[in-house]
């Protein structure tokens, strides 16, 4: 019996197209989270809100890459004999360098604006300003010290668990950006055009499920079922920043989203350290 050769051979061009689409989406997601060069062939290419809408569910995957590099650095530093606190500081510093301090800059802007502004217009104007105030600098110092201390305290017990915590925090905190954009109204006058979207319910759910599964995979061994506490704590901290934004400026800007990521990431690390040390059951 003869067969149709067109039906029997796999459609390799479709597979290649799908693979190239995923790679392109990951590059776009990386660009949104790190502002690293997009390296597109077409120099006239303009990033749009449609691009963000398509790739926002991949933010947790970018989190794996960012956190993974920090985790590998931590393990290598400890393996070479560097003390845990120093190794933790260097791994956090590497992550800040990889992301060009994009999220940290947003958190500092929020603290400066909310701490110094007297009304919505002033708060937004201060957040847009390039000048860094005392509130922002002190907040970044506290957040960075908290991250380093949490990672180091876990690494004293188990360096592998500390590496897993870095990845889990990077993943889950970035998973919370899409749902924050769904329930907070955008401040259109204070947002770049590519950020003025409401993520679809499907992409939001995909990102959250992906983040949940990856966090569980990272922390189920060192934290057991208490990873649920870590998950909830990270989500609650993101919700708190969202509520603060609603109260202060009645919506979100990019700085609000970056602040949500930073606070959630720090919360995940701190709560994970408390659980692994044994201070939280």
List the total number of helices. 13
Report the structural category.
mainly alpha
Instruction: Choose one word for the global shape.
Output: globular
Helix and strand element order? HHHHHHHHHHHHH
**C-alpha termini separation:** 67 Å
The unreliable regions are 1-10, 37-44
Mean pLDDT: 87
Please indicate the percent range of residues in DSSP E strands (runs of 2 or more): under 5%
How would you sum up the major sheet? none
Rg measurement, Å: 20 Å
Q: What is the quaternary state of this protein?
A: single chain
Estimate the helix proportion, in percent: over 70%
Describe how the helices and strands are arranged.
Elements: H1 5-8, H2 12-34, H3 49-55, H4 59-79, H5 84-98, H6 102-116, H7 120-128, H8 134-157, H9 159-175, H10 177-183, H11 201-223, H12 227-249, H13 254-277
Helix pairs in contact: 2-3, 4-5, 4-9, 5-8, 6-7, 6-8, 6-13, 8-9, 8-13, 9-11, 9-13, 12-13
Brief overview, please?
This protein has helices at 5-8, 12-34, 49-55, 59-79, 84-98, 102-116, 120-128, 134-157, 159-175, 177-183, 201-223, 227-249, 254-277. With 281 residues, the protein is mostly helical.
Give your account of this protein's structure.
It is globular and about 50 Å long. The protein has 281 residues and is mainly α. The longest helix is centred in the middle third of the chain and has 24 residues, at 134-157. Helix 6 packs across helix 13 (254-277). Helix content is 75%, strand content 0%. Residues 1-10 and 37-44 have low confidence and may be disordered. The protein has 13 helices and no strands.
């Amino acid at each position: 019996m003869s067969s149709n050769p067109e039906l029997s051979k796999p459609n390799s061009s479709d597979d290649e197209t799908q693979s190239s689409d995923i790679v392109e989406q990951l590059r776009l997601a990386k660009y949104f989270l790190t502002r690293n060069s997009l390296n597109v062939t077409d120099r006239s290419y303009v990033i749009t809100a449609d691009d963000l809408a398509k790739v926002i569910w991949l933010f947790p995957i970018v989190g794996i890459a960012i956190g993974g590099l920090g985790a590998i650095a931590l393990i290598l530093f400890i393996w070479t004999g560097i003390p845990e606190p120093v190794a933790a500081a260097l791994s956090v510093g590497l992550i800040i360098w990889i992301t060009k301090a994009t999220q940290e800059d947003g958190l500092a802007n929020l603290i400066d604006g909310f701490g110094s502004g007297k009304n919505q217009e002033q708060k937004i104007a201060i957040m847009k300003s390039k000048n860094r105030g005392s509130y922002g600098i002190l907040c970044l110092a506290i957040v960075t010290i908290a991250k380093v201390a949490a990672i180091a305290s876990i690494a004293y017990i188990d360096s592998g668990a500390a590496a897993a915590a870095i990845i889990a925090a990077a993943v889950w905190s970035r998973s919370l950006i899409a749902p924050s954009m769904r329930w907070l109204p955008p401040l259109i006058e204070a947002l770049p055009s590519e950020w003025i979207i409401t993520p679809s319910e499907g992409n939001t759910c995909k990102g959250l499920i992906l983040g949940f599964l990856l966090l569980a995979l990272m922390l189920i061994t060192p934290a057991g079922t208490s990873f649920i506490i870590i998950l909830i704590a990270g989500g609650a901290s993101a919700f708190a920043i969202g509520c603060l934004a609603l109260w202060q400026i009645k919506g979100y800007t990019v700085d609000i989203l970056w602040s949500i990521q930073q606070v959630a990431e720090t919360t995940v690390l701190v709560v994970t350290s408390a659980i692994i040390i044994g201070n939280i059951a």
